[in-house]
Amino acid sequence: MISIPLGKIAVPTPGTPVPITLTNAQKALLPPSGLVHKVEAWPDPTDTGVTKVLVGGTQVAGLPSPDTAAGGHAQPYQSKSEGNGVNPLAFSVDNTQAGNGPFVTLWVE
Question: pTM value?
């Protein structure tokens, strides 16, 4: 399995989703289909807002930032399929606070 870390995708304006985009180097790691096995989004524990994961404009997950001071742990969102069947470019993220956003990683079989 190959991981393609995209890093933190910060949302500059709450309510305006930021699409997942790839650099040329990241695109080179994808199979010819451009599809991946899994899209994984982790809330940043230093954020204060709620991350929203969207597919085609429809929210599929809400990820609150964990209260790490109270022992909370981050809970990721994972969209996966058999083989490589997930289109990462269909995903976008939003957040309730400006500058907040998830860490996103793509996984390819």
Answer: 0.89
